[in-house]
Amino acid sequence: MALSWLLLILLALAVIGYFAGRSRALASADGDARALHSLPSYYGYNVALTALIPALGILIIWLLAQPLIVENTVSGMIPDTAISEGSDRGLVMSEVRRVAYGLDGAIASGLLSEAQARNADADVQALTQSLKDAGQVLTQDISKPILLAAQKYRGITSTGSIAMQMAVLIVALVGAALAYIRTHKEFRARNVVEQGILALLLLAASIAILTTVGIVLSMLFETMNFFQLHSWKDFFLGSTWAPNFRGGSELSILPLLWGTLYISLVALLVAVPVGLFAAIYLSEYATGATRSIAKPLLEILAGIPTIVYGLFALLTVGPALVSLFGDGGALGLGWMASSNAVLTAGLVMGIMLIPFVSSLSDDIINAVPQSMRDGSLGLGATKSETVRQVVLPAALPGIVGAILLAASRAIGETMIVVMAAGAIAKFSGNPFEAMTTITTRIVSQLTGDTDFASPETLVAFALGLTLFIITLGLNIFALYIVRKYREQYE
Amino acid sequence: MNDMTRVERTVDSKAIKIAANDVQVHYGDTHAIKDVNVEIEDKTVTAFIGPSGCGKSTFLRCLNRMNDTIDICRVTGDILLDGEDIYDKRVDPVQLRAKVGMVFQKPNPFPKSIYDNVAYGPRIHGLAKNKAELDELVEKSLRRGAIWDEVKDRLDAPGTGLSGGQQQRLCIARAVATEPEVLLMDEPCSALDPIATAQVEELIDDLRKRYSVVIVTHSMQQAARVSQKTAFFHLGNLVEFGETGQIFTNPEDPRTESYITGRIG
């Protein structure tokens, strides 16, 4: 029985439970809905939810746990002799899985009978041939231990899924029955449903949090693998980034971190003044009509995909900068050799961050009480004096928070730097030179043919984790500052 | 009505500081102030009383052109300060507001130190030549605001950390620091407790020695206690204007009488 059928049965059970619970509640009150503790539909929901939720919970846990258990059991069956040199248990296990799926496929297409598939003494070569005839993907000929393991794999999996279906249905039926029996006009179905809703909301919240934890853990394990293969001293304290897939790479984060911070700095130098001035104009000077047009227009910038910004940098900003600062350029300086440069990436990234800074700052400036402005204007200050000396100082903590949030976006930005910053890892203060960032190196280390056992690939996880920690720290700091500011006026 | 005798009422006539002739104020389509004529004397406390929404705050805000900051507000008619029309094109509203200081309903100290709060106006207008002069000006203003003794040891502490009454007296000191000729107060005690109110009222009476003070208040007792002249506003009209004692004991207009005896409000 396929999973979709199981889900349909559960759903049908819930619908039946809803109407059964509803009518039982009404019957217990002799059809007078006013005598019930809750509205009739609550009794229905109670039965439906009690049937559905525990069953779905078991289904999910079972689906997650079963492959792990099967894998462990089967992989113990494979003797060490069956693992050829240069291979490992993981590779053999994926072959076992392929054979198992191949057998399933062959049965489904009618080329093999169930008995043939289960026959442990089957002729290995004939079986390989018939599987290949059935169009199943096999990377090598089936060997005896792999066949045995695959048969065991199939066996456990199918027993497991039958057991799962039984368990899920039993839990659903028992739940529905219990809730149905409890249904009575005195029963506080409304409160129970409220609890159910609470549990649902809690589940949604915890999924988000657990995912974060999962991401961190997966990065952490790969990073630990990396540090077993490569010295942490070179990673954190070295000075050269020179990955070499033949081994002997120098993998230091420092030149990449320098590039990241330098490009982010240029981006912030663009975004903070422009964004802040735009926010001041919108919140202090613009009339309602201007504001209602200008603000959404500014926020459209935030909706442009970063790859489009990357194209803009590559095709427009880079060449424009070269024609200004390059050889034979308008300024005759000859400073800029290629359109890939810190300045190009920084400028475009700054444009990308403008709406981010302006819209957060605008909200924060608007939160400064009008009485502050009145007080200053009433003393004979002009509007710009009021903004500079009263409104901005009052809004400063919030604005700093906004800038820090923008900074953490700049540090994590990938597409623009991939396309506009170049790929050379070095320490240099010249904004007209190409440089590279942590994010672009993660991309380049993980694209193409990768071998997850080499430090050149695994370094991507160490880089990612470092980046994550930096931006997380910045975000926490920014939120702390913003929150501290909010306490002042509420 | 014993408290009415607290302020000695000088009846001798003084110079006219502000004269308003046929002032009209429109908020969009609403006609908020209608044909107001009033003469405010120098070195006198003038109280504006009236029910909520009667236009007394709006009129007060016309006197230093604070209504200019509201887009939909339109003022017509003449308001003369020392004989000069303050709505004339040659008058810079920013300069005017330094001459006509304002204290607001809710204490609104800036999120700066006590010293910087008071020094704000003098710094903007360049009233002090050097630090010593500024120090002196700040001290003088804080003394006039009757708050010097309470804050002289913590001038660097934030102004927002003071109590409500102290904050309001700080705001008065801040307004006084720009050396205004007129002080406008928009319900300065409505956010204060009775003790702080008493302190501020005492201060207002003291300020009368140097400035012309105009105060908007909801409390008729307060108007009676602190003012020499009272104007009663109702539905955008100036109903009656005269000596405070006269208004409270022997009003001419029946609407004034109904209001002060509590029949309309």
TrEMBL record, chain A:
What InterPro entries does its record include?
MetI-like, MetI-like_sf, Phosphate_PstC, PstC_N
GO BP: phosphate ion transport
Name of this chain's protein: Phosphate transport system permease protein
Which NCBIfam families does the entry link to?
A: phosphate_pstC
- List the subcellular locations: Cell inner membrane; Cell membrane
Concerning its family, UniProt says: Belongs to the binding-protein-dependent transport system permease family. CysTW subfamily.
* Record-level Gene Ontology MF annotations: phosphate transmembrane transporter activity
UniProtKB/TrEMBL annotation, chain B:
Q: Name one GO cellular component term.
A: membrane
Q: Which UniProt keywords apply?
A: ATP-binding, Nucleotide-binding, Phosphate transport, Transport
InterPro entries in the cross-refs? AAA+_ATPase, ABC_transporter-like_ATP-bd, ABC_transporter-like_CS, P-loop_NTPase, PstB-like
The record ties this protein, via Gene3D superfamilies, to:
P-loop containing nucleotide triphosphate hydrolases
User: Which biological processes are named by the entry's GO terms?
Assistant: phosphate ion transmembrane transport
A GO molecular function assigned to this protein is: ATP binding
Q: In what residue span(s) does the ABC transporter domain sit?
A: 18-260
**PROSITE patterns with a match to the protein in the record:** ABC_TRANSPORTER_1, ABC_TRANSPORTER_2
Task: State one Pfam family annotation.
Answer: ABC_tran
Write down the superkingdom of origin. Bacteria
Q: Which NCBIfam families match?
A: 3a0107s01c2
Q: Which PANTHER family does the record match to this protein?
A: ABC TRANSPORTER I FAMILY MEMBER 17
Q: What is this protein called?
A: Phosphate ABC transporter ATP-binding protein, PhoT family
Q: Which organism is it from?
A: Ruegeria halocynthiae
